[in-house]
Design brief:
Helix content is about 65%, strand content about 10%. A hairpin with a 7-residue loop joins strand 3 and strand 4. The chain has a domain of about 180 residues: f41 fragment of flagellin, N-terminal domain (Up-down Bundle).
């Protein structure tokens, strides 16, 4: 062993050991304070990048899930109103059947049918979701009849919802009906023809009876729209269930990367504190070691 005074190698080594222990203890204490395993990019460069990517995907999937909820609410609104229209058509059919009774007052029946036609037109005009009309073609929809919703994390994960044009018939279009009772635009010929006849029906039995053919075409279009709404709702339910699972799994992966193991970090902090005390004591002893050289000068 060399006896040196100017450079105390043992003390320097003890100091380096104390510094390393203090840094580990401080890191454990920081993780306990923040409950996060990664507090800076330097803690885990690759883990930080992966975790941030996961966090972004989680946010996008949560936004997509909100979109799905809005889409389902929109479809539910349209469904409720279309069912109301179908019920009104049933009432009109009952009026048409009543008109075949020779004892019936066809004039009053005609007035009732016109009143019901006004209500149907009012439903088409006023059925809205977030101020967007749902039963007529408007500029707020892509291609005039389609609602587009992002239903996934990628911008290409979209569902185009179009329940107004089906194989059974169409309820939206470019037609307009204007009567003394209402004006309705953005509807198909099936709707415009039916409403035109209903709003102008005469009082004769023959005039009232002629409505059946128009009602058939109109109701077929309503039935097609309702069926399409049901199909889209089912698809949205599937996407909602998938996103719920995907978000949970992504959050689990994110937690594994970023969240601290509190029990382990507490053990590390306690161990570090003990090690710091021991290292400090050894540094003090190593720092005093050169005093032994004084005995050579006595």
């Amino acid at each position: 062993m060399a006896f040196r005074i100017n450079t105390n190698i043992g003390a320097l080594k003890a100091y380096n050991a104390l510094k390393a222990v203090s840094e580990k203890t401080a890191k454990a204490q920081l993780r306990l304070a923040t409950q996060r395993r990664i507090n800076s990019v330097a803690d885990d460069t690759s883990g930080f990048a992966v975790g941030k990517s996961l966090a972004q995907k989680i946010k996008l999937m949560q936004a997509a899930q909100n979109n799905i909820g809005s889409a389902k609410d929109m479809l539910s609104t349209a469904e409720t109103q279309l069912i109301s229209v179908k019920d009104l058509i049933t009432q009109i059919r009952a009026k048409v059947a009543d008109a075949t009774n020779a004892a019936a007052d066809s004039s009053k029946i005609s007035g009732d049918i016109k009143s019901l036609a006004n209500e149907i037109a009012n439903i088409f005009n006023t059925t809205k979701f977030n101020n967007t009309k749902l039963l007529v073609s408007t500029s707020a929809m892509s291609n005039g009849t389609t609602f587009s919703f992002q239903t996934g994390a990628e911008s290409t994960d979209k569902l185009n919802v179009n329940y107004m044009k089906t194989a059974n018939g169409t309820i939206s279009g470019s037609n307009t009906v204007s009567t003394s009772g209402f004006t309705l635009t953005g509807i198909s010929s099936a709707v415009s023809d039916a409403l035109t006849q209903l709003a102008s029906v005469g009082t004769s039995q023959a005039s009232i009876g002629s409505l059946s053919a128009y009602l058939n075409t109109f109701e077929n279009a309503i039935d097609g729209a309702l069926s399409s709404i049901g199909n889209f709702t089912q698809r949205l339910d599937v996407k909602d269930n998938f996103l719920t699972s995907a978000i949970a799994n992504s959050q689990s992966s994110y937690s594994r990367l970023f969240d601290a193991d509190m029990a382990m970090e507490q053990l590390n902090a306690t161990k570090g504190q003990i090690s710091e005390q021991v290292a400090t004591s050894m540094l003090a002893q190593a720092n005093l070691a050169p005093r032994g050289i004084l005995s050579l000068f006595q």
